Amino acid sequence: MHPSAPRPSVLHVVPTARAGGAEAVATTLTARLPERGIETECVVLHGTDGGLPGVRSLGRRRSSDPRLVADLRRCLRVRLEAAPCVIVHTHLGWPLYHVRLAARGLNVVHVHTEHSTGNVRRRPVLRPFERRIYRGLATAFAVSDGVERALAAWLGDAAPPVEVVWNGAQLHGPCHRAPPDGRVRLVSVGSLTTHKGFDVALEAVALARARVEAYRLVGEGPERRALEERAASLGLDGVVEFVGWSDAVAAHLCWAHVLLAPSRREGFGLAAVEALSTGMPVIASSVDGLAEVLVGAGPAARLTAPDDAAVLATAIDAIAALPAEGYRALEAPAVRQAERFGIDAMVDRYAERYRVLTARRVGGGHD
Fold first, then answer.
1. Cα 290–117–200 angle (5° rounding)?
2. What percent of the chain has pLDDT over 90?
3. Cα–Cα distance between 79 and 67 in angstroms, integer?
4. H-type alpha helices, 127-260
5. Between the chain's N and C termini, which has fewer beta carbons within 10 Å?
6. Is the pTM of this model over 0.90?
7. pLDDT tier for residue 1 given thresholds of 50, 70 and 90
8. Across residues 311-319, what is the average pLDDT?
């Protein structure tokens, strides 16, 4: 950093401390940016702080609580007492909306990371409102080219400057697991929501039952009960395990032979990259964002059409049937592809952009 350049002060805002990819990105940046000389904090709108460093909760019961606008304005005023300019970096819908209101009249640079190619809030009736909200951003970041295209299509000429910054995943290192020997252990990692497509995964597991030793779903969410009932109706008791939220994702990845990522939409695919980093093959939907992450993995990634349980089951069968040397040959291309998406590259890129945005706002002019 230039010796006379102002030191960036960044406030990340997310709905909760522990949920999915967006929250993981925000809390990772909060933990790692101080190493780059950037002051940072992460505020969550509801729930607890999760015991994470640099994270605090505003303690509301839901992200839609209108009192959060006043809460966030107080947070921004406190930070502005110690810094000439504050960058507030929002992730997901409610933080975006609340901060646009809370930051009015304050010397705040508002940036936002778009994490999805198909946000559920994108309904025609909301488009004029969202165009106005996004138009006021200094910059929007997209986690993949697919997300950038989707955002541009939604906003049209109201789109702010948009930059693609690939997400950074935790790279665990090869596990050197034993080959499947005819039957595979499967794992999926992610929030239990409709767009993750885990209902399709359960159907595929039922179809490929003879080739499946066990299937773990690691994550929590509103669809858990429905998925549990679906697993039972498919006769998968004793095969499918719902782990819930876990801080030990690497252990579950190393336990498994294959990651299933049957998403109906996906902005990036953190779980897929983490799985590749252990040397494990991935079977995933060929949707924007997720397909971009996997396209360079060669035979270690098998892309299937979303909502097609039969094709997914065929892909499971194919990996289970691989000879030992064929399965072991997938490790090297998997690890190579994962290394493109390490955390350091993401943190460095955001740190660079924060410095530029801060310098521009306070007049330092150091790009």
1. 55
2. 84
3. 19
4. 127-135, 145-155, 198-207, 224-233, 249-255
5. C
6. no
7. very low
8. 98
